Amino acid sequence: MEVRRVLYMKGGVGDESYARNSTMQGTILSLTNTVVQEAVTDMYCTTFLKSIAVADLGCSSGPNALLVASEIIETVKRKCRQLRRRLPELSLLLNDLPGNDFNTIFRYLPEFYRRKGLNQGNGTTHGRCFVSAVPGSFYGRLFPSKSLHFVHSSSSLHWLSQVPPELQSESNMPLNKGKIFISKTSPPCVSDAYAKQFHRDFSLFLKCRSEEIITGGQMVLTFMSRRSSDPVVEEHSYLWELLGQVLIDMASEGLIEVEKVDSFDAPFCTPSPEELKHEIESEGSFAIKSLELFEASWEAAHNHQNCYNKATKEKDPMLEELSTAQRIAKGIRAVTESMLESHFGEAMIEDIFSRYCRHLEDYCSSNDTKLFNIVIAMVRK
């Protein structure tokens, strides 16, 4: 699987789009607001720059893409009012893989500028904001040296740059046969392969950002994690385990090839807090300011979205009428459809997610649906 080519969130604003089915990601952004505010305030009060460059890595598409920018702008405004300083210009650099639907983000910009009282050209008393798209993988250089003051990424770094190559044996036989992620029945070499790939990717990510961020610049990262050092836990793997079961069922019915299932592995990893801390300290360019593990449930995400809709008077009747399992299935589809379609074909997608939703209904009837995430704030040494 060529991850850079096939991994992108479902574009547009239709019923199956990421824009309509990313309430969990929006809730996670809201839960980490305080960490972002503190980091931005610290960065600004340390530098008092006239122009601030902010990069949001893995911004995806839809309304969530501008939530962090909105929070950063409001934070700087408040601090400038307190200190009676002129507002700095803001350069907002939105990054994602080339397949991302940047056009949907751009369509939100006029309303975004209006709500924030911003202007790209002559400026207003509320300041200027310049928005750019930067397509490319964040597992590589994206920006000029020492050009960034604040970097943010949410719900993105659990995606790997590639499926771990160690999952293929020397004879080119799949080592995780019948599974698409780490499972209790997977051999130990599978979890080792994922750990090695995460190490390669995250250490490269830190190295690239260390070259792009100024000394004293700040970075806040949020992504899925796990509480235990044991990689075989159900906290996130149940989402892949159930999807894998769907594919196995379809293969047993002759709808898809068994070899297709055996050759599909998720480019996804959820490290523990201890592993992350070790990686950051080993790379050495950043000092950890705070590191916090927190949980968010799909039900809480739905309740949060309802509160958001009431505040903004924006309602989505489709989502309000769905069960928890249906919302999860739509959320996972918006994220994984591009990969599954590339591997199994477009004709299989509806059947895959119809079955997936039924499996989730059974799971949700007797299990919790919370997910664990980690938020890390750090400063460039």
From TrEMBL:
Swiss-Prot/TrEMBL keywords: Magnesium, Metal-binding
Keyword Membrane listed: no
Keyword Lyase: no
Top-level division of the source organism's lineage: Eukaryota
Gene Ontology molecular functions: metal ion binding; methyltransferase activity
InterPro entries: MeTrfase_7 (IPR005299), MeTrfase_capping (IPR042086), SAM-dependent_MTases_sf (IPR029063)
SUPFAM superfamilies linked to this entry: S-adenosyl-L-methionine-dependent methyltransferases
The name this protein goes by in its record: Jasmonate O-methyltransferase-like
Organism this protein belongs to: Phoenix dactylifera (Date palm)
Lineage: Eukaryota, Viridiplantae, Streptophyta, Embryophyta, Tracheophyta
Name of the gene: LOC120110975
